[in-house]
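User: structure tokens for this one?
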Amino acid sequence: MSTNNNYDASNIQALEGLEAVRKRPGMYIGSTDSKGLHHLVWEVVDNSIDEHLAGHCSQINVTIHPNNSITVTDDGRGIPVGLHEKLQKSALEVVMTVLHAGGKFDKDTYKVSGGLHGVGVSCVNALSQAMTATVHRDGKIHQQKYAEGKPQGPVEIIGETDITGTQITFEPDASIFDAVEYRYETLANRLKELAYLNKGLRLKITDERVADDGEFVTEDFYSEGGLKEFVKYLDESKTPLIDYPIHVTSEEDNVEVEVAMQYNTSYSENIYSFVNNINTREGGTHVSGFRRAINRLFTKYGEDNGLFKKLKFKIAGEDFREGLTAVVSVKVPEPQFKGQTKGELGNSEVTGIVSREVGQALRHWLEENPKQAKKIVDKVILAATARHAARKAREMVQRKNPLSGSGLPGKLSDCSSRDPNVSEIFLVEGDSAGGTAKQGRDRNFQAILPLRGKILNVEKALEHKIYENEEIKNMFTALGVSIIENEDGERVLNTDKLRYHKIVVMCDADVDGSHITTLILTFFFRYMKKLIEDGHIYIATPPLYQVRKGKNYQYCWNEEERKAAIDRFSNGSPETSNIKIQRYKGLGEMNSEQLWDTTMDPDTRILRQVTIEDALEADRVFAMLMGDEVPPRRHFIETHAKYANVDV
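Assistant:
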């Protein structure tokens, strides 16, 4: 991949200003919540990644400072600092203060770029209360500081250097974002992802907010095997069906295609796609091309070898992808994304390119690995048979029962409101807690559905078995949702008749309660993910303690609040014998008034909304926690146990 090494001020093209960014930040970064906050980091890191793709960067460091400001450093060529002819100011200032200005618009500077459709570092600057750009270039250290996107002085030379690279430090504007606290896990997972996508690139993250044995928390990410290692990492909690991942690398019409795919014994399909290192969560033409190749090649292989003769129904595309984990990565010179946040690739020509290249590589693999190919086809036949059985079981669940009129579960205590926008349902662990919740609720808009014990672990069950589970059947019918097949024969969740727009999982605040919550969330993630994506799923947070002195009492949700309540009631005195502490291990230990006051009253309760920030990591964690493989789960528990406050 050759590029122009004469990267200077003449390569920078200004398209328009950035006056509107601070007024309407959501238009440029998607939102001003946690996702938008972290998007700022991705925009800066993307620039460094583009330098790597152009062959000029081997190391990227990300540092989270105690005040939640971020520093991103790379060893690339450094942003040009010379005079921009058209605007008569430093090219560095142009890049940092003019929207859609940068080397990405010059084909000779970057062959491919992730940032072309984005808004770049100038948008990050506009949404930061302070930013400093430091450039090592041409033997000098150049620096310029900004506030709310405006330069606080000219570009200055502050020293000499024998290295090249760019360092950007920015502090998000607290008046714009809902919160300005960065999540280490979110940043670390993305950098790990980038290491797999860019083999040979070293990435490092340091969190100066947290010290471990006197040292800042830090992680280094580096991959020699790239996507092959990525797929193995994603599947570490699953049992592989074939000996090693199938790997495809090719180039056609300046579009680079790299695919790694691995079959496992699970029942879920997991395809992750990237364009110029950007995670295209909604897929796009590259994913369509990949699926087309999979369907075409395996269908032909099965038919040519007479493997589908005994089947009495037609194989569907999804049957070929059950138990498949794949990463599809393409590098496109001029990507056309649908939407500002680059969620879906729209380049029509990419479909055919990916389909041809993956098809050709897969054809050779099938010819050279007949035994493993037979294992995959056997898995496809099993998936088709299970899908056929699941359709019958699903139809039984979704067919209304004429004897019960509405078809709603007998255990459901429904609310009187029929407006889904104001109605909410509590999925409650056990009949005892369900009875307390029924007494304490507001019947106008709160419904209660008690669940008996632990629901089926859907991670390890065939789909038709899931629809036979009584608790899961009750959830389907109570919520009013159904699984249908779209025009392509794909199963999708139909939420047109969703009866409640708040679905609250309410379990005991102990280990068993956490397990049941995880089982329910696993079910929603695998079979009703749209409800999570649409923001309908919540987790109730009942208090852990009640601290009482005489007629005065206070509810406490954690250990710190408990200690503070004791201090308040004792007025600093060491004598605490007249202070009573009740530890709530179950919802049934509260009376109905207490449960309403602490956990169900919209004015006082704390609900945690379930979101999917990183679907790739969420899938891996669910598979690890609820799957068959023990070692990854044990490692996860041992790693996170020090953060947990678990009752024994």
